[in-house]
Predict the structure.
Amino acid sequence: MKTIPEPIAALWPVTAESLNRGCACRTLDPEALRRHLETDPSLAGLYGEIARSRPNLFSATAVFISPEQYQGMTAIAAAIESVAALPAYQAATLARAPAIARLEQGPRGVFMGFDFHLEAEGPRLIEINTNAGGALLNAVLARAQQACCRQMEWALQPPTELMRIEQTFFDMFVEEWRCQRGTAPLGRIAIVDDEPAAQYLYPEFQLFGRLFARFGAEAVIADARELEWRDGKLRHAGQSIDMVYNRVTDFYLQDPAHAALRQAYEAGAVVLTPHPRAHALYADKRNLAILSDADALARLGAPPALRETLLAGVPRTEQVTQGKADQLWARRRTLFFKPATGYGSKAAYRGDKLTRRVWEEILAGDYVAQTIAPPSERLTLVDGTAADLKLDVRAYAYGGNIQLVAARLYAGQTTNFRTPGGGFAPVFVVPAPAAQVAGA
């Protein structure tokens, strides 16, 4: 039988919540992070560049969740995948999307991001993102952790899946290729965004470039506006591109600057992932109004078990309309307002912070109102002083199966990378107290 020694014994029973709220220890090993970031000579200096230009990208603190919370997130992600496959759901969501979203080329879409707040009753899904960033950065970060003391070693055991996560990620891209190209050999991959070198997560683009090369795939980081559609091929710097890992936030490729990428996709000349169809089916926040509405789910043919899972896990969401203006304003302190096709918490507002001017802008825009699911908190040390930071948990998934879970620590109204002590944080699932004592 094991006992929980001091100082962990003071937190008994040791739960994910007691660790998050009672242990402020730093677990990040900076030298290990440097080694994992710079595994290839071409990445030499990456750690120093991140520390200089992105000092709040990585938190030095780990986050803990319970097995029940992890299982809850798994069930919600799987339920949404099942509902998204229903013909009636697809008809309802695609009908309000641009025509390009109705193209079905085969791929599912890599790195679906399910973002959760953790409540006592279980995880609450606050939004879905189709080109969720940070998966590879978080895989590196999770491997660079060390126990702050011997007594904490049991809580910082990485899952076995983490040891082969790069293979898992690469296999996902191979599967996307096969969904559209069958057994043809995987061609040149472009990691694409607007001004990629200027993006905050550009270091991840560099890591993906090396990951693809490691598995024998030719890859390039490309500016979406520099792509060309010529002779039936998508090209960059004169070379043909066969597959695009899409990080562009013009989700329906409506910007004229993205005409080449759009034309290649519409012609089926490039394997694009994630793609407009995935955004329409998953990430449009108006979908949350369906996923949190019992009657709507029943009408679309969702089985009772799926309805139960979603109604428990998705905060009630509704579309903002002029007809609901008065009652939504009256309830605003319990609501969070988000643009239907927004991303990165841009133009999102807590109802209790609203001014009349902003409210008029919301009514004139295309917004949803979501019942507030308060974020949980993580005790951290910032410049030697204890501080409580909010956290959300992102589950990176493919085909409804979670591949990696990470957290973001922040202060303020929404997630950001400007909070000292905040940023990405690794997530560890800790066993229940009985398992700890029994050594299970």
Remarks:
- The radius of gyration is 22 Å.
- Residues 67-84 form the longest helix (18 residues).
- Residues 8-315+373-438 form one domain.
- The chain has 16 helices and 18 strands.
